[in-house]
Amino acid sequence: MSKGKAIVLLSGGLDSTTCAAAAKAAGFAVMALTIDYNQRHRVELNAARRAADAFGAERHVILPLDLSMFGGSSLTDDIDVPKGDGAVDESIIPPTYVPARNTVFLSVALAWAEAVGARDIFIGVNALDYSGYPDCRPDFIRAFEALAAQATKAGVEGDAFRIHTPLLDLDKAGIAKLAHRLDVDIKATWTCYDPVMDGDSALHCGRCDACRLRKKGFVEADLPDPTRYAA
Amino acid sequence: MSKGKAIVLLSGGLDSTTCAAAAKAAGFAVMALTIDYNQRHRVELNAARRAADAFGAERHVILPLDLSMFGGSSLTDDIDVPKGDGAVDESIIPPTYVPARNTVFLSVALAWAEAVGARDIFIGVNALDYSGYPDCRPDFIRAFEALAAQATKAGVEGDAFRIHTPLLDLDKAGIAKLAHRLDVDIKATWTCYDPVMDGDSALHCGRCDACRLRKKGFVEADLPDPTRYAA
């Protein structure tokens, strides 16, 4: 039975695509929202399109919102994306942090939700990210729900918005398992911050933090990793 | 003495332009942020440019962010802008409410603030608006400050963001007086939701809620109103 519309933030990565699959599995009609923030890894926009198609999203909006005008992140700026071969240091806020990104994304999702009468918003933040990114922590999600209650016509009328975070307590291995269970087309998802071109097709670099965590997740989950890595 | 940079949300209207003047008078270097949300009253973008010039803004960013893709408001949609000759009913949420607009605007301002190391954000919300718009109320502003403390690297490190609302307790007459005192070029500001073209130049319609409140403000403040109204 349909639970009605939910706005699902969909970047095209493994996390957000699995999050969208969870929203659909929970009975929501998926309204997929992709923010084109002029990220370096623009290939993820195509992954988002494929995922929205695969889920039979009721609507898919790709909203241009050029956060690169502000700078301050290696994802939108000339700062180097960190690379390495060892373990990812999850205790520091990495240079790939985009200032206030999830606040902006959830705000735009809230605007769309209120305009179409939806009260449910899905975002694929998870336990692994939130050690490094302030806007992936449960305290942030709760603060945003509190804001939504004050910020909107629906909210002040007592009709609360819910921010769903089905991946919150999962690490990458848990997400890989969930993706598998929900039949996500894993090889169509895009994770890498710094794609390497191989002719016309983009490969995952295999060495940025995001690639290393993705690799490690499949290894730890003991699942095949269909991703094409350059290294 | 400069207090450093402040992000100032500047639409080009009387309120936000007066708010920017207050930020400058308080000693901040103005970083003006205008959101081009594909509003019907696009003439206000030119007013914002003039205002940013007039204040010697350190930088002025006009960020395209097309909220009209979501609909739900007479400012971005095909819903009629309400018109009338009597008093504006300030007790209801009007159809000119844009879902979660100030949440989106403040989020983008927060992103820019964090990227450039600013901790101060100015927004020209006021007492007159907040009876009708949920996101112009003090409770909303406080909820946003609480969110900013959780949402950002600076915030979680204990370096708080301040949302300044110098117009919060003013009605339109109070804003007109403040604008006058701060030498704002009032006739360069744009308020009308539904401009009327007179050859190449745009006139304020004089009949939408925003125009009626602007008119009434100058009358009550006993100040000359240099605005060119069509009616």
TrEMBL record, chains A, B:
Q: Which cofactor does it need?
A: Zn(2+)
Q: What family, per the record?
A: Belongs to the QueC family.
The identity of this protein, by name, is 7-cyano-7-deazaguanine synthase
Which PANTHER family does this UniProt record tie to the protein?
7-CYANO-7-DEAZAGUANINE SYNTHASE
Would I find ATP-binding among this entry's keywords? yes
According to its UniProt entry, the function of this protein is described as: Catalyzes the ATP-dependent conversion of 7-carboxy-7-deazaguanine (CDG) to 7-cyano-7-deazaguanine (preQ(0)).
Q: What are the binding positions for Zn(2+) in this chain?
A: 192, 205, 208, 211
- The protein's enzyme class: ligase
According to its UniProt entry, this protein's organism is: Pacificimonas pallii
Sorted alphabetically, the keyword list is: ATP-binding, Ligase, Metal-binding, Nucleotide-binding, Queuosine biosynthesis, Zinc
**Domain of life per record:** Bacteria
Q: Which reaction does it catalyse?
A: 7-carboxy-7-carbaguanine + NH4(+) + 2 ATP = 7-cyano-7-carbaguanine + 2 AMP + 2 diphosphate + 2 H(+)
Task: Copy out the cofactor comment.
Answer: Binds 1 zinc ion per subunit.
What EC number(s) would the UniProt record show? 6.3.4.20
The reply on keyword ATP-binding is: yes
Question: In which pathway does this enzyme or protein participate?
Answer: Purine metabolism; 7-cyano-7-deazaguanine biosynthesis
GO function terms (MF aspect): ligase activity
Q: Where does ATP bind?
A: 10-20
Pfam (any one) = QueC
